[in-house]
Amino acid sequence: MIDEFSLLDKVNTGDIKPTGAKPKLPLKLDGLDSENLNVYRIPLDMLYYNDANGRIRSARAHFENAARSVDDGDEYNAIVERLIEDSDSAKLKKTKKDIQEKGQLIFGYVLDDGRVIDGNRRFTALRQLQRETDQQQYFEAVILPVTFNDKANRELIKRLELALQMGIENKVDYDAVDAAVDVWQTVKIDQIMLLGDYAKNAGKTVKAVESSLNVVYLMQDFLNHINADEHNFQLIKDLKIYRLLEEIGEKLKKRYPKSGPDMEYSKQLAFTQLHSMILTGGDRVRYMRDYFEGVVDSESYSDFKEEVDDYVEELQDAFDDKKVTSAADYRATLEELTPQFRKIQKIKNDTVNSTKRSKDAEEFIESLRQINKALADLNAGHGLTGKLRWNQFDRTEILTIRGYMSQIVKDAETLVDIYNDEL
User: Fold this and answer.
1) Phi and psi at residue 59, in whole multiples of 5°?
2) Beta strands in 241-385 (DSSP E)
3) Model confidence at 71, in pLDDT bands (50, 70, 90)?
4) pLDDT per residue over 202-246, tens digit each?
5) Residues 6+ positions from 398 with CB-CB distance below 8 Å
6) What radius of gyration do the chain's Cα atoms show?
7) For 175, which DSSP code?
């Protein structure tokens, strides 16, 4: 695979044949429509995976040393193929079975230099079928007359990719990590689009895209925190913690809208709780909710921070001593730190229980205050409240009201004696 390679040149020489199908583009692109585009049967060895794809970028740390070049194109394709299979082997098997039985029913999209911008799973299934059957397979795809190396075309390519993979009519089940990394890479790293443009082309709200971008920064903070490559987003996927990090980010932003040192330390403590939760298992949503409501939002948070500070420092030292490259590495470090996590867990549980007891007591006193207020209002209204008048009640109803009041007096006298005994 070389930069000068052109699929359209192969079309002109007859090495690539059209299928006769005409594509219907999901959006309007200047100079491109069904009149001048065709679907072709392309030999697999003329194609390569799109390293700018969001799914592939999220696993970047797994193949950093296999960037596509003249010499290692086959190696690069082989590595990405394994990543795609590992990400969802069940879906790949289904795709391969469908293609084997019915042929490729949905065409893909490729650039003139062979870059596959839509249809990675179909391309992967065909690669495997070709090896397994020892029969030539072809990827049916539209060849766009542009290349990724031309920076002027990158926005156009990205718009088409978003329309194909995230658009309403042909929406793909994009993993949350992949989707967030794609926003970050497109908007902040490659600077192909502004955030609002990305949201529009992906069929999302600006707020949703901005939220995804913020989670990427939090993922990188977490990866740095555990001494992993900050681009090893695959680790976040393997640990299945994207939604938890998203929740942590929202909670911290609400408590610390202006960021600062306090927020950074609270973030580290939240990561510590995340470690503990992963180590012990259990209800993840409830665990983090109890932590934020029972610890972070309590009056005892300062005491909690002081009590766990030494243990948190020990945890950080342990992570700093070992490079984490996989979920297995990470879990091994957590296992070694079990004694520290048990102590942190006890302090957390004691704080949550204390906060709950305090909250229960406050709620009880508040309920009594409301009862007292209601009685005071009745007394101020000479037995009635609001716009009620005595002529609205008959004799039986007044007797009933008086009976309730008599019982209230008796119960109150008994309760006062009980409270006196507790003093």
Assistant:
1) -105, 20
2) none
3) very low
4) 889 999 999 999 999 999 999 999 999 999 998 999 999 999 999
5) 390
6) 32
7) -
Q: Are 162 and 16 in contact, with CB atoms under 8 Å apart?
A: no
How many Å apart are CA 107 and CA 159, to the nearest integer? 18
Decide if 220 is inside a domain: no
**Shortest CA distance to 272 belongs to which of 310, 299, 328, 242?**
310
- Burial class (CB within 10 angstroms; exposed 0-12, middle 13-18, buried 19+) of 52: buried
The pair phi, psi for residue 15, each rounded to 5°, is: -75, -20
- Could you give the CA distance from residue 381 to residue 386 in angstroms, rounded to a whole number? 8
Both 271 and 133 in one domain: the answer is: no
Examine the domain organization and report whether 59 and 141 are in the same domain. Answer: yes
DSSP letters spanning 346-372: HHHHHHHHHHHHHHHHHHHHHHHHHHH
Q: Is residue 20 in a domain?
A: yes
Write out the two tokens for 236.
């976040």
Q: For residue range 300-357, list pLDDT tens digits in order.
A: 999 999 999 999 999 999 999 999 999 999 999 999 999 999 999 999 999 989 888 8
Query: Is 237 strand, coil or helix?
Result: helix
Averaged pLDDT of the chain: 88
**Spacing of C-alpha 76 from chain mean position:** 27
295 shares its domain with 419 = no
The amino acid that residue 204 corresponds to is: K
Half-sphere CA count of 51, side-chain side, radius 13 A: 18
CB crowding 250-289: b at 16 or more within 10 Å, else e? ebbeeeeeeeeeebeebbebbbbbbbbbbbeeeebeebbe
Domain end (from 119, 143, 172): 172
Tell whether 10 and 87 lie within a shared domain.
yes
The predicted model scores a pTM of: 0.74
**Residue 186, domain member (yes or no):** no
Coil, strand, or helix at residue 20?
coil
Residues 397 and 343 in one domain: no
Cβ distance 218 to 180 under 8 Å?
Answer: no
The structural domain count of the chain equals 3
What residue has token string 């330390």? 265
β-strands 115-118, 138-144 pairing: unpaired
Domain extent, residue 419, equals 393-423
Beta strands in 190-253 (DSSP E): none
The dihedral region occupied by 40, where left means phi > 0, alpha psi between -120 and 50, and beta the remainder, is: beta
> Based on the domain organization, do 24 and 67 belong to the same domain?
yes
- At position 335, the amino acid (one-letter code) is E
Residues forming beta bridges with residue 143, ordered by sequence position: 110
Using DSSP's 3-state secondary structure scheme, residue 115 falls into strand
